[in-house]
Amino acid sequence: MTSTDADSLILRGGEPLKRSLARALFRQKMRALLLIAPLLAFIVLGFLLPIGTMLFRSVENAVVEETLPLTVAALADWDIDSTELPPESTYRALVADLQVAIENRSALTLARRMNFETAGFTTMLRRAQRELPSWNLDTDGPFRDRMIDQHRDWGAVETWRALKAYSGSLTTGYYLAAMDYTMVSGHVAPMPDNQSLHQMLFWRTAWMSGVICALALLLGYPIAYLLANVRERNANLLMILVLLPFWTSLLVRTSSWKVLLQDQGVINQLLVWAGVIADDNRLAMVNNKFGVILAMTHILLPFMILPLYSVMKTIPPTYVRAAKSLGANDWTAFWRVYFPQTVPGIGAGAILVFIMAVGYYITPELVGGPSGMFISNRIAHQWYVSGNWGLVGALGTILLLAVLVLYWVYDKVVGIDNVKLG
Amino acid sequence: MALPSYASPLQRVWHYTFRVLCGLIFFFLIFPILVIVPLSFNAQDFFTFTREMLALDPAGFSLKHYRDFFTNPDWQLATRNSLTIAPVATLLSVSLGTLAAIGLSQSHVPFRRAIMAILISPMIVPLIISAAGMYFFFSAIGLQGTFWGVVLAHAILGIPFVIITVTATLVGFDRSLTRAAASMGAGPLRTFWKVQLPLILPGVISGGLFAFITSFDEVVVVIFVGSAAQQTLPWQMFIGLREQISPTILAVATLMVALSILLLATLEMLRRRNERLRGLTPA
């Protein structure tokens, strides 16, 4: 039916056909959306929103402004590059602010926040907490000298520069820290070498994931090829050998690698027994990069094999036969005819494995030791040990952005609709 | 892939080398899982084979690690928690996920790609980020450290698997069957329960198994969102592995391998049934 027909046709009720069809289509769309809505709402509220708010912590910096409103206002006229201390009026504002903060117990929150930037703030505020409440704002001045008497860092320009630099309600400070930079005297500068860790960890996470991905491809390709080219019944049997690890708990597989690779573990025991290595010279295979790469290759290998297999299964064997009948030898037939057709599978498997590897936490934590640590472990450490949630947010945002770029590439290459499981 | 009779010696060598290589890779895949099983019967608190075990001396074997698992209150609490959290989370993700998958597989869905990307995202986002985000949010609404908090978190993590498997099953679903049911006077609900659901059931169940194992195997999110009262089996194993390895872990691991074999067998049965049913429907 052409569009002019639809335009001119009138249904029995007097309604044009076109409008009736449009209404039916609209109703169909609404019905589909209605079915999706509960889940979509669930995911947006329970997942995307929490992650969004968590990531917002990476720029949020209301603490200084909220706790020291008068000081922040007084510092507005003070130049951050100035080598002179702020005037007495600023010190007076600080004392007034701190008295309120000590009263309502927000002083320690401030101390925690500033301590991430300048170590020593906690001590300064502890001392203030002991003495300030008894000071009288009107009669006990001047406050500059009294504060410096209390802790000499109140007389350091650096302290004031840090306070001024972090007085905005938004900050880039956590991102600077996440990239191993810091504010020195209110200016961005690289972190001292002994404290810069994050760039190295991002880089390590990336290259180790790359190695794991390459190893999984190297080991997965022959297996997928075999599975796609043996008789169906044998393929189903061999498939079980791939699917069993796939379905086995990650914890089980990690613990078995830990058991195998230990100093007193099965592999070392076997090598000692065979006389390959001396009893007092056992191989250190766990708590280092080697252990992580080995265990993660094993754990992620099925994720490489399954997409490769599903692509290889669709390649008709006649192509390779045709190539051979035209005079190609085995290698040429494989490399020029078969291999190019498996590239989509390689892309799918490689991106999938890489995405999963980059965010790994459990395996590096258990078999990695300090030298096999990934960026996820650092995030967890910041969360547990330092409670530096802004930095958790900043590191998390960078990691998430990397993963989202890969996800986008995956969607372009494979299409998220075409993800296959098992 | 049989070797033809006219194969050259080089081809013969390669043929067998390739098979040996594949055999070695299969060994690499399966050995770490199987080696745990005999080790879990060790009579000593070692993580390696003792002399008695290698000599197959009955004295070298014992069930003591299993006994510890079944009597230790920590492990018992963890087992109970795992067995209550995972089914409830699975039920939640399967019911919402199946509904949404049916919606997604209609012929006209606005923003289909974007919606799909959002629904799959819990599978893609690194767990540590999801965990930290959920921690803050669930604390704010008072669900942190509660049973329902962990259940909701795990349901979210399981949803992508349900969506993927059920939409894949619906691709092969013959739409004229629901139309036939409707033309014979069945309402939408009746059509769903009596016609559509029984046909896509294998996909729904395998999605459910994925969701179950996701929850049953999950450590990171439960550590953040849960409290000691929600300690699950993987959590207990994680602590055991990080602090001091207790050989009981090997017994637990063996039981979990048995569980995964059970799941795998169920899935394989479903797959065969599905193939049989699809063979019957006209292409």
Report on the architecture of this protein:
The complex is a heterodimer of chains A (422) and B (283). Chain A contains 20 helices and two strands. A two-stranded antiparallel ribbon of chain A has the order 1-2. Chain A is mainly α and 422 residues long. Chain B is globular, with a radius of gyration of 24 Å. Chain B is an all-alpha fold. Chain B has a domain at 76-246: MetI-like (MetI-like fold). Chain B has helices at 9-34, 36-39, 51-54, 64-71, 73-104, 112-124, 127-140, 147-171, 175-183, 188-216, 220-225, 233-242, 248-280. The longest helix of chain B has 33 residues, at 248-280. Chain B is 75% helix and 0% strand. Chain B is built from 13 helices and no strands. Chain B starts with 8 loop residues before the first helix and ends with a helix. Classes of the chains: A mainly alpha (422), B mainly alpha (283).
Distance between the termini of chain A: 44 Å
Provide the gyration radius of chain A in Å.
32 Å
Head-to-tail CA distance between termini of chain B: 29 Å
What would you call the shape of chain B? globular
Task: Please provide a brief summary of the model.
Chain A has 422 residues and is an all-alpha fold. In chain A, 69% of the residues lie in helices and 2% in strands.
Jot down its keywords.
heterodimer; A: 422 residues; mainly alpha; two-stranded antiparallel ribbon; 20 helices; 2 strands; B: 283 residues; MetI-like fold; 75% helix; globular
What is the fold's blueprint, element by element?
The complex is a heterodimer of chains A (422) and B (283).
Chain A: H1 3-8, H2 17-56, H3 62-67, H4 69-75, H5 88-103, H6 107-115, H7 121-131, H8 143-150, H9 157-165, H10 173-178, E1 181-184, E2 187-190, H11 198-229, H12 232-247, H13 250-261, H14 266-274, H15 289-312, H16 318-325, H17 330-358, H18 362-367, H19 375-386, H20 389-413
Chain B: H1 9-34, H2 36-39, H3 51-54, H4 64-71, H5 73-104, H6 112-124, H7 127-140, H8 147-171, H9 175-183, H10 188-216, H11 220-225, H12 233-242, H13 248-280
Helix pairs in contact in B: 4-13, 5-8, 5-10, 5-12, 6-8, 8-10, 9-10, 10-13
